[in-house]
Amino acid sequence: MSYSFLILIVFWFSTILALDEGDSCTLKSNGAPGQCTTILKCASALQLIQKQQFPQTCGFAGTVPIVCCGDRNGDSRPPPTPTQRPITNRPVTNRPVTNRPMTNTWGTTKTTKTTTERAKETKRPTGSSNVNPFAPNSIGYKSYKKCSEYSNLVISYEKPAILFIDKENEEVDTCGFKVIPLIVGGVEASRREFPHMVLVGYNSPEGIQWGCGGSLISERYVLTAGHCLISREYGNATYARMGVTKIDDNNYRQDINIIEIIRHPKYEPPSHYNDIGLLRLERAVSFNKYVRPACLNFNQKAINVNAIASGWGRTDFAGYSSDKLMKVTLELTDAATCNNSFRRVSSQKLENGIVESIQICAGAPGKDTCQGDSGGPLQIYSKIKCMYEVIGVTSFGKACGIGKSPGVYTRVFYYMDWLERTLWG
Predict the structure, then answer these.
(1) Span 236-251, mean pLDDT?
(2) Which of 148, 156, 218, 227 does the annotation list as catalytic?
């Protein structure tokens, strides 16, 4: 290798743009717009390497360079055509329960093209190191097992940088977040921080109406609120969108038809009790570092005093839905305090007040979740590597950020038996 080539390598590594894969960039050579992508997907960058010239570098995925690429890449396709889907009440065993709806804030999006990224793994890690603490067939056993399995998706195997072409595929940790003290609130979520987040859409003459949130919890199922299954104005939930932080971002977006809506057997609107449901997707989701399931809350004892809510909802009362995924840290509130906030809610909606066994209250001044976040997750960091546990489903609340009014969430742990049987038999 010549000294001049070594100098080029040093120069290449010293001019990194510090951008992530999928970010927009500008080519210095001609000022044209580009997109940060792995070098192995960019033909023009590979041609430069062959000429001992180096492309503009955004960053690295492991040792694989991410370059500013001006090539046209990726095929686009329109959102899927909706199909007829049944409304299903799945049976529940002898657990006493009771239920809820809520006014939605609707964000409108015209039908646009979409692209789907396929998972790039060439081999899979050999199982999780986590030992399942649950007895087989006990409540929580299947959820813990699946949570450990989904945690393995964080590790992918990718080809090394072009400079090390003889090396074997390299293990890359694609975890998109670090466990940090829960001190943030009302801020933008970073890319890949919540890979389980789902937008729930409804068909309308103006295009897809994105009215609720949800959580991907398996290859084919999305967890959401019971009141999100059907919109009073637009009918049944029709689409699920995942892989995005900005609603219209199509770099790693996956749009999939919803073919079945499954409400809890004891959810009876307008009651606020048992406000939980599932959406079954037309096909399995393609897992990658942008799209990965969350865990169900298999251990109620793991719940602490703080949790994180995320969604594309309102940023303030009477405001507009955000087009960017937001996150907020909330404090869990006891039932007595919560009941005091909602004592004037009609008995038709809260006949027995806030019921702590099936509901969670959480909030902080100016930091509660808002109407557009309906169906979205209240989550905590799991002890399993790079996973969140969904402890609650956003149900209802007062106007956003008003005083110390908490929001109310359906407690996931209470419904574990029904969820596990519906998802995994």
Answers:
(1) 94
(2) 227
